[in-house]
Structures are given as C-alpha cells and as structure tokens.
Give the backbone structure.
Amino acid sequence: ILNVEQSPQSLHVQEGDSTNFTCSFPSSNFYALHWYRWETAKSPEALFVMTLNGDEKKKGRISATLNTKEGYSYLYIKGSQPEDSATYLCAFRGTGTASKLTFGTGTRLQVTL
Amino acid sequence: DAGVIQSPRHEVTEMGQEVTLRCKPISGHDYLFWYRQTMMRGLELLIYFNNNVPIDDSGMPEDRFSAKMPNASFSTLKIQPSEPRDSAVYFCASSSGTGFYNEQFFGPGTRLTVL
C-alpha cells in the first residue's frame, strides 16, 4: 500500500496571507506527482503535473515544488483570496502503476476576509 | 466537450437494495477510473479500465461491488446488496493515456446514501 500523506489536514488563513502545504510520497519508483484543487460540491480539477526532481510549476498565485529524492512536494499560495478556499489534493503515480493515482487525504484551506 | 458525465448525482436507497451508478467518459479517452470518497479514507481507487477492459480491481471492497464497461462511452458501478457503510461520493474519471502529463478528468460525482 502506497503511503501518500498531506499536512496540515486543514488550514484557516485570512485574505492576503501566504500559505503552503506539504505532500509526502514514496521516494522510490517515482513517475509523476499531481496536484488537484477540489471545491466543495464540485469535482477535483487538475492544477499541476510534476515529473522531474527540482520541478517548479506556477499558475497565477499558486506554485509548487518537487523533491523526488526525499519524497515531498510543496504547494504555495501567495496572497490567499476567499476563492482559494478548497481542498488541495496531491496524487502519486509510480513507475510500476503509471495509470493509477494514489491520492493523499488532502489539505482543506479556508480563506476568510 | 461535455466532460465526464455521471448519473445520478444523488441517490438515496435502503439497505439491501441494488444501486447502479453510471458514467460517460470524455470522448476519445481510453482509460476510465472509479473512485470512492469518504471522510475516513479520502479518495480511493476502486477499479480502472483500459479500452473497456478491467485492468485493476484490487480496490473493489468486496463481492457486492461490480463494474462493467460494455463500450467506450459507458460504464456502470453496481452495488448489490447495498449497506449503510457504502454511503460515500463515487467519482468517475477518464484520461487519454498514461504519459507523464496525462491528467485524469473527474466527473461531478454521485452522492450515495444508504439508509
């Protein structure tokens, strides 16, 4: 059983705060790491796919980094806005099972005014 | 593109009844995935298909669960008989391959409540 963990489980910040959360995954047999954004009552939407050690991705105020050797990825949100409130999921793909995503349990972010 | 379509969006049933969830993947996608989301276990993969063939059903909880994909545009997940612990949101997702940057696109989910 693959162990994909996310921390913190939940986070409550104020508008304008910058925040980050962590995804840890097996450092062996790495293929790709996905980040999804999941708003309540909607379906998960893809944010990033990361494949190489040292990868950095950015989309607007959201960015992510990847360290495959130590098995972690960080997601950063700069200047949080209420519309950033969602659950952020990471998902690991291993070389032996490249079709499958193993999801972490997510970090639930709430941004208030 | 309409995206992944799931029906029904909500299902309330009584214990012991048969439940059938439906999914239409994005046209041209040859991978289809069924997931279950619960508070305790998060998003779990139940089964996935490639070109309509089940590839890995190791996540199917027990024999009460079955899934089929009779053609490239339709899949069902059936629970018979249903139990209260099956209450969850069931998602279907599809993708066009397993390359590095192939994303899975999720449907809106079916919220199942078994009384």
Notes: The longest strand of chain A covers residues 30-38. The CA atoms of residues 54 and 110 of chain A lie 28 Å apart. Chain A touches chain B at residues 31-32, 34, 42-46, 49, 51, 89, 97-106 (CB under 8 Å).
